[in-house]
Design a protein that fits this description.
By secondary structure, the chain is of the alpha+beta class. It has one domain. Helices cover about 20% and strands about 45% of the residues. The longest helix has 13 residues.
Length: about 140
């Protein structure tokens, strides 16, 4: 239940943002100059030198989202049966009973980290040639 709520909450936060849209936006950077990339994305957090020439620019973001505490009820049904003799009577009677009570459960507030790391490959001519991304929040709107 808790994981389902977190998943639904994350989906609501992201609206129509999808990983496919994020990939489409990243693809527009392929073929552009490293200067244009820096103008659009800012200075990278990390730069790696590739062994066969070129560089990797890495951008990361992390956002902590707090899900609120919430409560829900769970039905608990009990069945009973037996024989009883009313006071002063000589007749025994059967009885059957069903009773449903509702137990309240509370789920505490939870923090969820949303992350996205994006890496752009830059060739020796300072042109973006490729990209890769990972994380649970690499999404964009159309």
């Amino acid at each position: 239940m808790k994981k389902t709520f977190i998943l639904l909450f994350t989906i609501l936060l992201s609206g129509c943002a999808t990983t496919a849209n994020y990939e489409k936006k990243l693809n527009t950077w392929v073929g552009t100059s490293v200067d244009d990339l820096i103008l659009g994305w800012g200075e990278p957090e990390k730069i790696y030198q590739k062994k066969k020439g070129g560089r990797i620019f890495e951008y990361s973001r992390t956002q902590r989202v707090q899900t609120p505490e919430y409560s829900y009820t769970v039905p608990q049904t009990t069945f009973s049966s037996g024989i009883y003799k009313p006071y002063g009577s000589t007749v025994y009677n059967d009885y059957y009973g069903v009773q449903t009570t509702y137990i309240e459960k509370t789920v505490p507030a939870t923090s969820v980290d949303l992350t996205c790391t994006t890496r752009f490959a830059i060739n020796d001519s300072d042109i973006v040639t490729d990209y890769k991304f990972s994380g649970n929040d690499c999404k964009a709107s159309k």
